[in-house]
What does this fold into?
Amino acid sequence: MIAALLKFELIYQRKLWALPAAMVLFFISGLQIGGQAFAPDLVNFNAPYQISYYTSIFTLGAVFAIMFFVINGVLRDSTHRMQEIIFSTGVQKYQFFISRFSGVFIFSLLAVSPLIIGMITGSQIMNLDPDRLAPLNLFHYFWNWLVFVLPNVFICSGFIFSVGLLTKNRMSVYASALLIYVLYFVCSFYFDSPMLAGSTPSHTDNMTIAALGDPFGVSAFMEQSQYLTPFQKNSVLVSLSGNFLYNRLL
It folds into this structure.
């Protein structure tokens, strides 16, 4: 039953304008990032550090794509007065919720993932300084998709989807997406996160709190990479260890 419901959900969501529009926007963002020719001194434009930095930062925008899929996935039944009819059939609530959330998550992931493709494309087609462009390594991009894009989209989808289920209100869904975005920066400021602290290293205790509490993993990544040399930034991937691992598990 769940498979059949999920198939219907995917077919329904595929027909909406939100997916192609979000994919294009994230691809263009990635294209600009990959081709902007900006990096710290002695760091390659497509270094693992640069890929991690921009991937983590720009996934903050995922919330604004996710909210549209949540509205279509959660609120359409109450809008069209179909909810009572659905639950009067043999569909169980857990089957309904799992299929709807899976549809929201899958399409949100599809919407945000072109960011990575755009970054790859931008670094290859733009006229960048070849001395600061490392050979293309697709694993570097895939790894950052795995540790940033995938969990961040899941976290945001789960939160916004829950708000939609509990309130059945369109404005609450919009507000929840904005709340994630605002609270991220409020918490970063309060805990002296490296995201907002400039080049001065934060106090160790504040760094730890920010690294563990940041739902997007940006502070945890910056804590791990703040003392890397330019050579290490050109070669070392963000590691699933220490506070970054605890952050992703949380």
